[in-house]
Write a structure and sequence with these properties.
This protein is α+β, with helices and mostly antiparallel strands. It has helices at 44-50, 85-92, and strands at residues 22-27, 33-38, 69-72, 101-103, 116-120. The chain is 11% helix and 18% strand. Bound molecules: FE2/S2 (inorganic) cluster. Residues 45, 57-59, 61-68, 103, 105 line the site of FE2/S2 (inorganic) cluster.
Length: 134
């Protein structure tokens, strides 16, 4: 490839940002932080499941179970679309939900959210699998 040519769209390179270069950072209940690739257009809950992060998401992203409860770091609040009435109604059902609470299935990843920090909440985190017998 000539040095003045741009790399093909499917190859990472300066000035040719691929949406797969986006990142999210997910903090689990134990305090561990997991930075993962993200793709524009996917819902946060889809991204967490694709990366085998332990989100319950019992309704599969339909917005009816409220088991994808996350908190969004305050500095990201202004970049998200506000929750609609249905999401607010579900959040009202979660004890302890506050103004930073959201349903991960209602947030679509965009380039503006690159680096987004979220905390998966206790009520929505799957328990660890049982230890295997020795
Ligand atoms: S996955 Fe059920 S409300 Fe989000």
């Amino acid at each position: 490839m000539h040095p003045t040519q741009s790399p093909p769209r499917d190859q990472p390179g300066p000035g040719n940002r691929d949406t797969a270069d986006l990142r999210i950072s997910v903090r689990l209940v134990d305090g561990s932080s997991h930075e993962r690739e993200a793709i524009s257009g996917l819902h946060l809950v889809e991204l967490m499941r694709a990366h085998t992060l332990p989100v319950k998401a019992e309704c599969g992203g339909a917005g009816v179970c409220a088991t994808c409860h996350v908190r969004i770091a305050p500095r990201w609040q202004g970049r998200l679309n506000p929750p609609d009435d249905d999401e607010l109604a579900k959040l009202d059902e979660i004890p302890g939900a506050d103004e930073f609470s959201r349903l991960a299935c209602q947030i679509v990843m965009t380039e503006a959210l690159d680096g987004l920090e979220i905390e998966l909440q206790h009520d929505s985190q799957l328990p660890p699998p049982p230890a295997e017998a020795a």
